[in-house]
């Protein structure tokens, strides 16, 4: 009988473990160089290829920042998953608005836009904020005015036939699911009112004229929260972001995000996409992180800042990613989200909760983009 080889069995076991956790087994470090490298949430291969085409050249025009802009712009143009760029994720009014962020890990400068209307080039607008203002975040119509004044095309209708059809169908379904809670009436399109007993007698009389009494608010459980709450419907096609990290040939780090936000969000909502440390964070001295998922939950924990700081303290990317996700899961067991971690050596890993997550990678040891699968 042939004798088993313990070393071979251990090696196979470790390989299997690394695949399940979404860890680069170290190949990126072979050959004495790890740069450049591009990592992105989801199988957004064309976005990673666009970033790679920029960063692989090195020198002028091949910076990490330029690569991030190229990659996120490609996803905006392709409308990745319907959740990036114009034409997707209508809010309650049927309008699409955009959020984006870019961060230079060498200087720690950041530019971001949120709830931006009528301009489709979100990541470019964020870069303009970083390069031409002393601010970090511009929002709403003033972000639009700034972007157009700096040369970006607009005003442009960011809706599409698909987004309008999606919104119309949602309205016909009594605006379910939605993001409201503790309101009455919960099961239709509003207007909504808090279920707390109003102290204002005028408001109380108005609401009672609509057929809803204070006693009904207290007795009817259906008034507390829509039965088809958004917490049960988060997925990459309605609640997603491209988050990208790049290390260029000089070892400089940049990160960026772009999203059109959560589908049927309350107008004015800003998710984690333009929030530094939540959707993305990067530092030349340490590495980078990107995140995706339920931004309203994740932004309460700044998971990417946590990942980078954990790596700064010596954690490996896998451990830092798992730790950041675990912190959220302990407080919100039903949340859906994921992060990838990339250290300054080019080693990468991912962690997720509530769904199976994939992220895309390209480095100098690969012939093309590779997709890493991470299980909860």
Q: Got a strand count?
A: 14
Number of structural units classed as domains: 2
Low-confidence stretches: 6-33, 213-232
Bulk shape: globular
SSE pattern: HEHHEEHEHHEEHHEEEEHHHEEEE
User: Which superfamily, in CATH terms, is the homologous superfamily of the largest domain?
Assistant: (Glycosyl)asparaginase
Strand content: 15-25%
**Helical proportion?**
25-40%
CATH class of the largest domain: Alpha Beta
CA gyration radius, whole angstroms: 23 Å
Please report the number of helical segments.
11
> Largest beta sheet: what is the strand line-up?
4-3-2-8-7-1-13-14
Q: Please give the alpha-carbon distance between the first and last residues.
A: 39 Å
Mean pLDDT: 85
Question: Structural class from helices and strands?
Answer: alpha+beta
CATH fold title of the largest domain = Glutamine Phosphoribosylpyrophosphate, subunit 1, domain 1
Largest sheet: 8 strands, mixed
CATH architecture of the largest domain: 4-Layer Sandwich
Structure, described:
By secondary structure, this protein is an alpha+beta fold. The chain folds into 2 domains: 34-160 and 233-374, (Glycosyl)asparaginase (Glutamine Phosphoribosylpyrophosphate, subunit 1, domain 1); 161-232, no CATH class. It is built from 11 helices and 14 strands. It has helices spanning 6-21, 45-55, 64-78, 122-132, 140-149, 161-172, 201-209, 214-219, 295-298, 303-312, 317-331; strands at 37-41, 98-104, 109-116, 137-139, 183-184, 193-194, 242-247, 253-259, 280-283, 287-293, 337-343, 348-353, 357-363, 370-374. The strands form 3 sheets. An 8-stranded mixed sheet has the order 4-3-2-8-7-1-13-14. The longest helix has 16 residues, at 6-21. The chain is globular and about 55 Å long.
